[in-house]
Design brief:
Strand order of the largest sheet: 4-5-3-6-9-11-10
Strand content: 15-25%
Number of helices: 9
Length: 258
């Protein structure tokens, strides 16, 4: 594939790219046959803002493939495997991370059309921390984010890193972005619709109980960390709380940097 220089790339219109994010960053050029083939092979390496953006980019790549007479059988197979329900979910005992943005409606009113860019930036921070912890993104919708980790320590480290990155970031119009983060460990059921079961309801309630900027975890998540918490993180007991819809009180802890 011929190398696309920065000058040549700049001359291309947005329509020559399969994906343009909310900040105007352009990825996956599809203006000629060789770049379409490259876009097909690299598609799953791109961190999309949300599932809708990924679907739009997928449609553009497939249209470009058709235009250049490319039959993308391998690409279609990979996409079907990547979205085949429970096949993409970690089995067994896992740690779930759920977050949402505190005061998202207030931020939307304050920022108007700029809120979309803020949300995209928050999601990039969430995704990056999840990838570093070798977690998997389960769902992203509106201001909510849901991920799963094999190790509880990695999940805690990711959640603490998310809060630090959000705190250090400068936001439009000087607004402050605060995210609630909840963690819980258990054995959710895998289905074609995603994870279901009490562990999913529990992590959602733990997240709702957190304050903006706080990482709150259940006693089960703490126990899953083992005898020693992740390096650079301290845990503080909050106490037992009756969370809405859960049959028993939940032991809660706050995780924060040392």
């Amino acid at each position: 594939m011929p190398q696309l220089s920065a000058k040549a790339r700049a001359r291309l219109p947005n329509s020559a790219f399969a994906y343009v994010d909310a900040d105007g960053n352009r990825r996956l050029p599809i203006h000629d046959e060789s770049h379409v083939r490259n876009a097909l092979s690299r598609f799953n390496q791109v961190a999309f803002e949300d599932s809708a953006a990924k679907e739009r980019a997928r449609a553009r790549v497939l249209r470009a493939a058709k235009q250049f007479g490319i039959v993308p059988l391998g690409f279609i197979t990979a996409q079907l495997q990547a979205t085949s329900g429970s096949a993409s979910l970690l089995p067994g005992f896992v740690t779930l991370l759920m977050t949402d943005i505190e005061g998202s409606t207030r931020l939307l009113h304050a920022l108007g059309s700029r809120y979309a860019g803020l949300l995209a930036s928050v999601r990039r921070i969430l995704r990056a921390a999840t990838r570093r912890g070798k977690g998997r993104i389960i769902d992203e919708r509106a201001d909510e984010f849901f991920a799963v980790f094999r190790g509880a320590g990695a999940a805690v480290t990711a959640a603490v890193a998310i809060q630090a990155a959000l705190e250090q970031r400068s936001w439009p119009q000087g607004v402050r972005v605060r995210v609630r983060a909840g963690l819980h460990s258990g054995r959710p059921n895998r289905t074609a619709l995603g994870y279901i079961g009490l562990p999913v309801h529990t992590v959602a309630r733990v997240c709702s109980a957190a304050k903006g900027g706080q990482v709150l975890l259940s006693g089960e998540a703490l126990a899953a960390c083992g005898a020693h918490p992740p390096a650079g993180v301290v845990m503080q007991r909050v106490g037992r709380r009756h969370l809405k819809g859960l049959p028993q009180a939940t032991e809660l802890f706050v995780a924060r940097p040392e």
